[in-house]
Amino acid sequence: MRLRVIYCHSHTPSIRCGSFLLPYFQASKREILADYALPVAVISMSFLGSFVFRDVATDQFRYSDNHPLTRAPVEELPWTASIAALGMGFALSLLFFMDQNISAAMVNNPCNKLKKGPAYHLDLFVVGVVNGFLSLYGLPWMHGVLPHSPLHVRSLVDVEERVEQGHVYEM
């Protein structure tokens, strides 16, 4: 219930800002609001939720200091589990590779006019090394597509709005 209330209170203002308030702001204020709307909504609704729902009883996360971070005992697995883990690991690695390259292809569109730096493809290598380390300790994998995501590029780009025949185009 708490998450639904927080979601509704963070989602509704973003819809209202998009349809009601944005035409009345200057272009620079609209761009700032568009760039920082999600983090501001999440942080403000988290604070609001923690203060408004302070009296709601929730279970706390339990942890123990008795279990240090140790390597997963993969050598004790039966050979069938090793084969299954290899298959699932290969499928997940393929998914990461495809997601990374599809996002990079969308971002490298010629209309973005980007120049690749010297370490452009280094992020996929770093994700592979980090995920290999995380696998040894039984921790969940992470994925680093953010530097190539279209939203990341959109937030870094300077946009000029042009009106042609009653339609607003962004250049």
Structural description of this entry:
It comes from Nephila pilipes. It is found in: Membrane. This is Sodium bicarbonate transporter-like protein 11. Keywords: Membrane, Transmembrane, Transmembrane helix. By secondary structure, the protein is mainly alpha-helical. It is built from five helices and two strands. The protein has helices at about 1-20, 25-50, 80-105, 120-135, 150-155; strands at about 160-165, 165-170. A two-stranded antiparallel sheet has the order 1-2. A hairpin with a 2-residue loop joins strand 1 (about 160-165) and strand 2. Helix 1 (about 1-20) packs antiparallel against helix 2. The protein is flat. The model has no long low-confidence stretch (mean pLDDT about 75).
Q: List SSEs in N-to-C order.
A: HHHHHEE
Structure class: mainly alpha
Major beta sheet, specifics?
2 strands, antiparallel
Q: Which sequence of strands runs across the widest sheet? A: 1-2
Shape category: flat
How much helical structure, as a percent, in the residues? Answer: 55-70%
Arithmetic mean pLDDT: 75
User: Any low-confidence stretches, pLDDT <50, length ≥5?
Assistant: none
Q: Percent of residues in beta strands?
A: under 5%
User: Cα-atom Rg, whole angstroms?
Assistant: 23 Å
Total number of helices: 5
Number of strands: 2
Gap between N and C termini: 42 Å
Subcellular location: Membrane
Domain Bicarbonate transporter-like transmembrane: 23-168
Protein name: Sodium bicarbonate transporter-like protein 11
Organism: Nephila pilipes
